[in-house]
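User: My advisor, Dr. K., asked me to get a structural model of this assembly before our group meeting. I'm new to this, so sorry if the format is off. These are the inputs:
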Amino acid sequence: MTKVRIPTPLRPKTGGKSEVEVSASNISEMIEHLETSYPGIKERLCDETGEIRRFLNIYLNEEDIRFLEGKNTPLKDTDEVSIIPAIAGGR
Amino acid sequence: MAKMKSLVCRECGKEYPTKDIHVCELCFGPLEVKYDYDEIKTTISREKIEAGPKSLWRYIDLLPVEGQPTVGKYAGFTPLVRAHNLGAYLGIDELYIKNDCVNHPTLSFKDRVVAIALTRARELGFETVACASTGNLANSVAAHASSAGMKCYVFIPGDLEAAKVLGNLIYRPNVIEIEGTYDDVNRLCSEIAGERRWAFVNINVRPYYAEGSKTLAFETAEQLGWRAPDQVVVPMASGSLLTKIWKGLKEFEKLGLLDQVNTKVNGAQAEGCSPIATAYKNGRDFFKPVKPDTIAKSLAIGNPADGYYALKTVSESQGAMDSVTDDEVVEGIKLLAQTEGIFAETAGGVTIGVLRKLAKQGIIKKHDVTVAYITGNGLKTQEAVIDSVGRPIRIQPSLSHFTKKFELEEPA
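Assistant: The format is fine. Below is the predicted structure of the whole assembly, which you can bring to the meeting.
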C-alpha cells in the first residue's frame, strides 16, 4: 500500500486522518481510490476538467509529480505521496 | 456603495467576504480583491487624481481600504527619472528609471504595500502586525508599526545584509532570525499565522497588501503624461510585483484613464534563484522550486507564490524573461550609478542587467518607451559592491600633494 499524507484542510474528508493508505498503480488511480474511500475528496483535488488543481502540489517521495509523469506517474507499494497546498497555512 | 465587493479566488472564482483570508477553501487558489469598477468609474478622473495628495494615496479609489489612510501616508509618488545617459549607452531613445530607492520612509517599494496592508489591518481590527521578509519588507513593516503604535514581529532569514538587519532593530520590533532560507521563514510564518490573530502582511492580509504594488504602474502612467510605456522591466521575487504592474495598467485602461495599453511586461531574476525565468525559458507554465544562491537576497525566493501568474502575465503581454549572474548584478548596479547617479540595491542590479540583455538582443528596441523599476536602495546592500569600487585617494593636507597626485599643472 502507498502511504498518502493529507494536508490539514482536507482532513475533514478523511475523518481527521493525516495519513491514509491506498493501493494504486498511478496517481490518477490513487485519486479515484481515495474518492471511493472518502467521497468528496476528488472535487477538492481536481478541477472540473479532471486536472489536479494548480495550487495543490503532489509530491512522490519528495519530487513534484509535474516533473515526473503528472497524473500518470506510476506508484509502488513502498512509495510515499504528499499532498501539499502551494500557498501553505494561514486561515 | 463600497468600491470593494469581495475577495474572489483567482482559480475557481469562489467569493469570500473582505476579511483577513488569503487562500480559497475549496481549491487552494489565492484570493484577490474584487472591485466595483462601474462604481469607481463614476468618481475617478485624471483631474481628480492630479489634485490628490503627492503620495500613492492619490489613487485611493483603486486601493483596497474602506476609509482614509491611517498608516504610511507619505509613501509613493517617487521620481520617474528620464535616463538619457543609460538610454544612450543601451541604445534606447526614451528610457526611464522608476526610482523607489527614495521611497518614504524605508527606501524601497515595500513602503507602498505596507501602507496599504497596515491601513487595512487596522480596519480589520488588528493590533499586531508581522511579516516574513527578505529584508526590505521587514524594514518597512517595522518602521510603519512603530509610527502606528502597533506591536510588531518580523521574521527574516539568517543571512541578511547588515543594513537590512539594523534597519529593523532601530525601530525595536521583535526581530526573529530563522536558521534557514526565506522559504523556510515563509513556511514557519504560515504556521504561526494560523495560530495567532496577527496581521501577517504577506500572508493573511496578502490580498490587500499586494494591491499596493499597482501604484507603481499608476504613477508611471501619470508621470509619462498619461501614457502606458511600450516596455517595462520588473524584478521578480514572488512574482507579485510584475503581475500587479500589469494589473494597474489594465485597470487604468478599463476606466478610460489610459488609451490602449500594449505594454510588454518583462521579468528579471538572478541566475542563482531563477525558478520563474527558467520555466519561461523552458516554455513551461509551472516552475520548479529551487534553493537560492545569489547576492540578490531580496529576490531570493525559491518557491515564488505568484510564479504561475507572473508567467501568465508575461505571456499575455508578449513580454520576456531573463536572468543574470551575480557578476552581472554588480555591473548593473555600477552602470546605473555611473550613468544616472542612482545607487540601487542588488535587485536593481538584476533589473539593469536584464534590461541590458533585452536591449542587446533587440527585444527592447530603440524607439520603445521603456521603464525599468528600481525597487530598493544600494546603501542597504553594500556587501555586494564593497570589494569592487576601489578606495579613496589618500593624501596629506597640502596643495602640492594634491596637484602632484593628480598630475595637475600649477595654477597660474
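One thing worth pointing out at the meeting: The first strand of chain A starts at residue 2 and ends at 5.

User: Perfect, thanks a lot.
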